[in-house]
Design goal:
The protein is mainly α. Helices cover 50% and strands 2% of the residues. It is built from eleven helices and two strands; from the N terminus they run αααααααααββαα. A two-stranded parallel ribbon has the order 1-2. The longest helix is centred in the first third of the chain and has 38 residues.
């Protein structure tokens, strides 16, 4: 059961209206790295989680993400306040009104025209929010790693938004939201490492013969080594021949078919076979004026 508190988790203090900045803020409202995507990702994971501790954590963070969605939505609306009424009431000349709502020259005028300077569930480019942003797979050791990455991506977007404004109040609110991404990332990491063992994700351990093999497939320039491909138990394979058919087979795809299937396959192959002796004249060649003096191998003039 949810209950709404009218007080925001963090006070929003916008110094001046800026519809262009408001439009960019939508990236964290209805974008792939935004607060709605985070809330839905963690909420749906919590519903299916069997571990009581992780379930409680996921519900807590999912609900907090909804409070962050509310903070971002209020920032968007406050930044749009100055032009909302002007657009609705038509108090300015067309050119001046367009200048106001166009903000910094991005698509903010579209947002204001279509959504009345509100906070639509779109990203900053106007693309509607979609559940396709949610990449939950139902395995805690995989989902927690995805959650850690999601929080890291959201933090980077907040940093970039902070760099786009000199409004002290907006910076403070965005700084708080950015910091909460760090806290959530820590919680998810702690939860992941509390599962022992947690790597590789899932139950099956993988084939030992290939688990610690590094295939050096990008060659032709400087080779840079590091802990990702040398030391420890890594085996580096650089020889091209040894990178093919590593199972010891011939590297070709085969399938067992019945006699009936084989007969049909042979029939289809015979029907669709290309004649290597043919010299057809194509429509492209006719269009280029080619073909009048072409003579086939048997002395005849080929026809399209």
């Amino acid at each position: 059961m949810f209950a709404h508190n009218k007080r925001l988790q963090y006070t929003v203090r916008v110094g001046e209206c800026n519809p262009g900045l408001a439009n960019l803020m939508l990236e964290q409202f209805g974008g792939p790295q935004g607060e709605l995507a985070a809330a839905m990702r963690y909420f749906t994971q919590a519903v299916a989680e069997d571990d009581p501790g992780r379930r409680d954590m996921l519900y807590d963070i999912a609900t907090e993400e909804l409070s962050h969605l509310e903070v971002i939505g209020n920032i968007v609306v406050m930044l749009n306040k100055g032009s909302k009424a002007a657009l609705a009431e038509g108090v300015d000349q067309a050119g001046e009104l367009y200048r106001k709502i166009n903000g910094a020259g991005n698509d903010s005028h579209v947002t204001q025209l279509l959504y009345g300077a509100g906070a639509p569930l779109t990203n900053s480019g106007g693309v509607p929010w979609t559940a396709a942003y949610i990449d939950t797979i139902g395995e805690p050791t995989a989902d927690l790693r995805s959650n850690i990455a999601a929080e890291a991506r959201a933090k980077i977007v907040y940093e970039r938004l902070i760099n786009l404004t000199d409004d002290a109040g907006v910076k403070e609110a965005l700084g708080f939201l950015m910091t909460r991404e760090i806290a959530h990332q820590k919680s998810f990491e702690k939860a992941l490492y509390a599962i022992q063992p947690n790597f590789p994700p899932g139950k099956m351990p993988g084939q030992p013969a290939f688990t610690s093999v590094y295939f050096n497939m990008s060659q032709g320039g400087p080779e840079v080594q590091g802990p990702w491909n040398e030391g420890g138990d890594w085996t580096v394979v650089s020889d091209r021949d040894q990178q093919m058919a590593v199972d010891g087979g011939d590297g070709l795809a085969t399938v067992h078919v019945t006699d009936e299937e084989r007969a049909l396959l042979d029939q289809m192959a015979a029907r669709t076979m290309s004649d290597p002796e043919a010299e057809p004249l194509t429509g492209a060649e006719l269009g280029m004026g080619i073909g009048q003096n072409i003579v086939g191998k048997n002395g005849s003039t080929p026809h399209p």
